[in-house]
Amino acid sequence: MIYKKIFNVNTLKQTAFNDWSHIVLLGSILLYAFTRFIDPVASQIAQGVLVFYMAYFFVKNPDQIRRDPMYLLFIGVIISQIATWGSVEMFHPEIQDNTLKIDKLGKLFLFIPIAWGLQRKPKWVPIVLLTACVGFTADLLFGCDFFAQVALAIQGQRVDFGVRNAQHTSMVFGLMVIISIFYMAVADKKTKMGIAFLFFTMGLAGLTVTQTRQTFFGIIVAVGFVFILSCFLTKLNLKKIMISVVMMAVLFGTASYSITINHRQNEAWDTIKTFTDPMPENLQTAGKKEILAYYISKQKDSGSGLRVKLWLGMLPYVYQNPFLGWGSNSIEGLIKNNPYFINEKSVTNMGHLHNFHITLYICCGIIGVLLINGIYVWLLLSSFRDRKQIPHGDQWFLLSVGFVTYWQVINCFENFSGFWTGVFCHNLILGCIYAHYFSNKKVLNVYSLMKW
Fold it and tell me: What is the largest CA-CA distance in the chain?
């Protein structure tokens, strides 16, 4: 009996498939992490493997993964996008290019196969993050004229190192700072501490030369919130307090210097001032449309001014189709046909809203907003609940809080979750965090929500 069990052909095939499939998945994760910035073709191949595993999970349902809250949210998002497409086809045929694109939001769930692949090897998480940092650094060095960019930065000009634009480059540097702070907090060897500090320094330097206000704001809010929360979760000694104070001082100093050399803070204050100035007397009794048109006309064609124009002009669409939205391809058409932007070519040429939250609401309605934000709610709940069962559990929970806070803040000023740069960072970091949840569960199911 033992002989037959050991040499059973079906058993050997199943074991071999499981081992090889896991190796393929791990290899794809590393390839995805390293090549996303430097080799889009190789990255697309790796991403295709991740998509295949999403389908595999649905068909094979290993360890009841279809009952996992994240996967249920993924299924909900797919159904929601189909429902939105159908409603627009039926009730708003005037919307052009209403093609069904379930990948618009579905791609934000590719962190699930990443987490699944890393669950058996949680120690690979820092390797994956380091691989991504090395790949990003290689793109900075070889994907553009690096020294020319450095020369411009020394002169005080804003640079982007060829990564879409400076906002997206800055977003990556901001995540590098947050991840580095986390690993400096949990490092048990000087070598690990040194690597983390190296990327922390690199991240701060990158933040300085990319001069992006929302990134600094997001980091300062996230780090400050995490520090306050850590006072209630972990025992702080004087050394930790001093390190945290120094970190905050460095971040504030870097932000102040970076924004000052570009004089961009005055532009933001001018935009805010348009709402604090008293309204003209002739508008005191005017209707909503006239008041809205007045505030839109007051905005300058600056970075913050154009954003506010866009957001104000889209308010009428917020009240229409509140549950399912206008469809994933509706934004550009709604901007171009907006009556408030008839003489605003600078606005109509922008093409998107520079705010993921508003974009998500208009495209997918309240249902889409709830489903996507359910990702972050469950990430925080699961990280908090399981923090005592995994090594450095408190720190991983604080990292979850820091990432979610940072991500929500910066997406208020740019549609990061709608572009490949943001999708990549979102999936990689969520995959690394959620891997610890997977590794701590023998059977995954939504009913674990009730077991606190």
Answer: 94
Instruction: List pLDDT tens digits, range 7-35.
Output: 343 443 344 345 677 888 999 999 999 99
The token pair that represents 116 in the structure block: 């699944």
- pLDDT computed for residue 80 by the predictor: 94
Which of 64-78, 273-287, 362-376 comes out lowest in average pLDDT? 273-287
| Relative orientation angle of helices 125-142 and 9-35, to the nearest 10 degrees | 40
Chain centroid offset of residue 288 CA: 35
Using CA atoms, how far apart are residues 287 and 4, in angstroms rounded to an integer?
Answer: 84
The CA distance from 354 to 110, in Å, is 23
- Rounded CA separation 203/309 (Å): 32
The whole-angstrom distance between residue 189's C-alpha and the CA centroid of its chain comes to: 30
Q: How far is CA 227 from CA 176, 307, 398, in A?
A: 18, 31, 9
Summarize pLDDT for 359-417 with one digit per residue, the tens.
999 999 999 999 999 999 999 999 998 888 888 888 899 999 999 999 999 999 999 99
Name the nearest CA neighbour of 240 among 178, 157, 184: 184
Percent of the chain with pLDDT over 70: 84
Burial of 422 (0-12, 13-18, 19+ CB in 10 A): buried
State the Cα–Cα distance between residues 366 and 323, nearest whole angstrom: 5
Lookup result for tokens 């249902």: 367
Angle, in degrees to the nearest 10, between helices 9-35 and 420-439: 140
- Which of 323, 321, 305 is closest to 334 using CA atoms? 321
CA 80, CA 417: separation in Å to the nearest integer? 18
